[in-house]
Amino acid sequence: MARHVHLTAKEYGIAVIVHTDHANRPLIPWLNALIEFSEVNYAQTGRPLFSSHMLDLSAEPLDHNLDEADAMLRRLTPLGMGLEIELGITGGEEDGIGTELGEDHTANPSFYTQPVEVLTAWERLSPLGIVTIAASFGNVHGVYKPGNVTLRPEILKSSQELVSSQCGGDPNPLPLVFHGGSGSDPAIIHEALSYGVIKVNLDTDIQFAFARGVGAYVQQHETAFQHQLCPKTGRPLKKQYDPRTWLRAGEQHCIERLNEAFTILGSRGKSVASPRP
Fold it and tell me: Which residues of the chain does CATH 3.20.20.70 include?
């Protein structure tokens, strides 16, 4: 996997990051095992197997969250890897983690990270290595009924201002992550980007784009998904129901949605990698 990533960068000039997402406490042993594999590969090749990992202990007390992040980052830094953490709870459900939202989502303070928590995390972890912070500002995984979600990106601005005033550096010293970006108003995304967000998660939108592509193809070739031979002509329909064909239709819709995302995020033409020797 790591070799493929480096060849991609070298041959095509495309920056690729291999990142694991949302590992909560039950998944820590799994994450530690992945780090062990990277340690072995690094000893043999000078390269880890992943670019970064994410430790999501946002549902636990802050000190426990940071204790685990501290220990993990100390292992990742010698490998040239980074760690993403989450402060405050991102609502909704992703990969079986989390719960569906209720009408009281906007009233739950856990969905809005406090800037002082961000400062505490940054002061402790940033000296140890590369850390990115997913600070919650009302964002959720998935797409939900309008009115159930209230985004407050000004929390990100306040966090940047507090860290900058206490630690110095650039106006936006924090590398922030926007979880649950799917379905968000482009204006909200642009505002979040202006406050130092460097990564936006759009998994639900990409899944929906894939489903739309496949669904449209199936509707256009309905007979092929019910019969191997056309009932009218007797001709084989294999080319139409071949999974490689309808999966490609889904991929094409993903490409369209990704190109839209690249434009909104202002990243089009900016992800060229410096080839590794």
Answer: 2-201
Report pLDDT digits (tens) over 235-268: 999 999 999 999 999 999 999 999 999 999 998 8
Reply yes or no on whether 67 is catalytic. Answer: no
Annotation: CATH topology of 2-201: TIM Barrel (3.20.20)
Q: How far apart are CA 245 and CA 160, in angstroms?
A: 47
> Which residue of the set 21, 67, 70, 203 is catalytic?
21
Rg from Cα positions in the chain: 22
Q: 16-39: per-residue pLDDT in tens?
A: 889 999 899 999 999 999 999 999
